């Protein structure tokens, strides 16, 4: 777990997250964050993936309204309408919340940033809750690695060998799906 009970940031009306690197392409299946929400009503949270290069919105998750009031914990969010396919690169994983009724708070936990630019790993945009902006317009950076991660399935790569040819779409006019009929397949 990243962070402790003393190191958290309010996500009420603030999109908050960190830059993480995806080293190989894949399909994102969910985002999980370590959260605690306050308020007597309407404790809503959703997450999203942004491209770090231009802060464009890749995909937002479903909204959850069941975040615990008293005890922080890990909460998983899924993508409605299909999982996003990601290329290798840097992404910003974020969470955003709202709540009604006192006491109002929404905490996401963090630790000091790491990686090549730790002082700028944390990203946030202060904005009223509801639809994720596209692109995200940063209010600022923070030296924080937030307790948020993305589960994904790597894109399968080429696993066969063909006499010096790698990952062809067709060989001698034969589709890869029928590759067993080509001479030289190992």
What do these coordinates show?
With 186 residues, the chain is mainly β. It folds into 2 domains: 8-155, Jelly Rolls (Sandwich); 158-186, no CATH class. Helices cover 0% and strands 47% of the residues. The chain has no helices and 15 strands. The strands form 3 sheets. Strands 1, 3, 6, 7, 9, 12 and 13 form a 7-stranded antiparallel sheet that branches. It has a 6-stranded antiparallel sheet with strand order 5-4-8-2-10-11, with no helix packed on it. A hairpin with a 5-residue loop joins strand 4 (41-51) and strand 5. Mean pLDDT is 81; it is low at 178-186.
Q: Please tally the helical runs, counting DSSP H or I stretches of 4 or more residues.
A: 0
Helix content: under 10%
Please name the CATH topology of the largest domain.
Jelly Rolls
Q: How would you classify the helix and strand content by structural class?
A: mainly beta
Rg from Cα = 21 Å
The major beta sheet can be summarized as: 7 strands, antiparallel
Q: What number of structural domains do the residues give?
A: 2
> What do the pLDDT scores average to?
81
Low-confidence stretches: 178-186
- Mind telling me the CATH class of the largest domain? Mainly Beta
- The CATH architecture of the largest domain would be Sandwich
Which shape, going by the Cα principal axes?
globular
Distance between the termini: 45 Å
């Amino acid at each position: 777990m990243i962070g402790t009970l003393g190191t958290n940031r309010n996500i009420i009306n603030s999109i908050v997250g960190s830059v993480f690197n995806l080293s190989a392409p894949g399909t994102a299946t969910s985002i999980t964050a370590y959260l605690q929400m306050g308020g007597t009503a309407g404790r809503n949270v959703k997450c999203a993936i942004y491209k770090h290069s231009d802060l464009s919105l890749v995909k937002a998750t479903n909204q959850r309204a069941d975040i615990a009031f008293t005890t922080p914990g890990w909460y998983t969010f899924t993508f409605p309408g299909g999982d996003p396919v990601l290329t290798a690169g840097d992404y910003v994983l974020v969470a955003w919340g709202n709540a009604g009724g006192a006491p109002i708070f929404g905490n996401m936990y963090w630790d000091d940033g790491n990686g090549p630019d730790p002082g700028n790993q944390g990203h946030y945009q202060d904005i009223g809750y509801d639809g994720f902006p596209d692109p995200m317009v940063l209010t600022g950076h923070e030296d924080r690695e937030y307790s948020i991660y993305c589960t994904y399935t790597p894109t399968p790569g080429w696993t066969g060998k063909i006499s010096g040819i790698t990952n062809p779409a067709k060989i001698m006019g034969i589709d890869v799906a029928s590759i067993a009929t080509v001479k030289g397949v190992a």
